[in-house]
């Protein structure tokens, strides 16, 4: 009996392969499900003698807040095969070829060595067992499944099979191994000695506060509203909604057989998608016909297997192929349209805990065991490894620091009150005058439908905890964390630097500057002891003018100039603790800029400092931002370091 379904999606999100029940022997599937903090630190400081990987699979980082699994209207082939591993791209990066950076000594509880390619066993190699696969293959029970017996014509195609049709659940709750995970979630927010600022917990059985990105799911329903809400298309017209009560609009499955239902759902989805594509092409637009079709199917309740279950998904067979993530959604195979792990809550004794039920492995998280029978998966969300490469000299790595993923406030903020929340149901819609978050941003949502920042502003207000909108709201971008495969590399003359394996689109979110927030209101600008101090000093014009030129389209100019620029009181030191951002060097011709972003509190003097791409950035290009200009001292001497950025317009110094 298959206890969960697994798809490997390789080549930069371009391919999905199903591992589920691919063999006839009983097999243990091992899964490591990490919570979604950015980079997972491990305690060891191994700096590895690795070379940069030049064979990059072109991939735009998935914009956040929407399902951008594939931006093009011609989708990649997604197929289900028992074959196992993906062939190229990230999936092809062998464990031995390169090792991850992770590192920089956090005191985690696991004591594990970061000896894997992508952190699968950063928790000391512990993985969770979610169940055994079926001797007879995953589909053997499908036809007998009584839970699907209620399958009826279109209006009632959905079925709820939250119970396991194949007997008792043989699954291990996540809390059983969470103790070994370094970046786990906890309610404990205090400032103890632990190096992780990320919340932590133990496996004591204490109820775990889920990270917000996970809690966005509707856990009780296989096809949650979030799946629907993640679509960026307009909501289907009311006439579509009648489909569920008007079977003329849909293909009625000829019987209650789960296989026929799944096929009918997929056929209807595909027909709708083709038609939308046809209409889009006639209008020379390319508007994700798959998402439109999916939205209509969901709104019309034309779907199969709406309830979550552990094990067989009735009507789905090994060898089935899919071209779109939405197909997985509408047949109840994998509800989240973006996240890698679909999971449900189930009882373990008196406790509720999460169990992975379906995995779309994104390819960036290699099956470390190189074994098609075993999947060690750590890739739901942005728990990406960071690579460390030195092509230049014998330097084994940067000085020790503690890897953290959230800023650490040394003093309490003046207002920890959450921002006022919007009442948008589902997602915030552009142009909605009733959305207070849009109003807070000057009337428009700051991000486009693909998660790209529209223009630089004094402050961006994202939707936060007190908003009623869902996890997939487009106004939640930076808080979802990093989606880019970073590499820390040795530069020729500026120490270590940062670059990305992925091409990055202008306006994409890269990462947050995290470290210790120093709020003494004073900062000695002549004190260069802390090379890792971030301050909001006035950057050059290129950064200041990252705007669309409102005056060009008859709008009032919102440009900030060097004269009107006002620094914020926030200062962040990443000397002792930080993340990849601390490796971004200065350039007078930068390709990255910082942007203050608020989403969790009201203190505008202490926003999050988020980095965005100033322009399209090819893979392996050094990522740099403008540290800012503090001019000269009274004697005319630049109060700064000599700049070695090498750009033609180099100012010669930087802070
Ligand atoms: C935030 S750290 C950047 C990471 C640093 N390169 C490292 O090896 O850890 C800032 C320091 O990097 C070096 N640096 C950054 N940009 C530079 C530039 N344009 N020219 C010369 N040195 C630079 C300076 O030593 C600076 O104080």
From TrEMBL:
UniProt domain Pre-SET: residue ranges: 420-481
Single Gene Ontology MF annotation: double-stranded DNA binding
Region Disordered, residue ranges: 185-244
Bias (Basic residues): 234-243
Localization: Chromosome; Nucleus
SMART domains for the chain: PreSET, SET, SRA
Every Post-SET domain range: 639-655
PANTHER family: HISTONE-LYSINE N-METHYLTRANSFERASE SETMAR
Protein name (database record): Uncharacterized protein
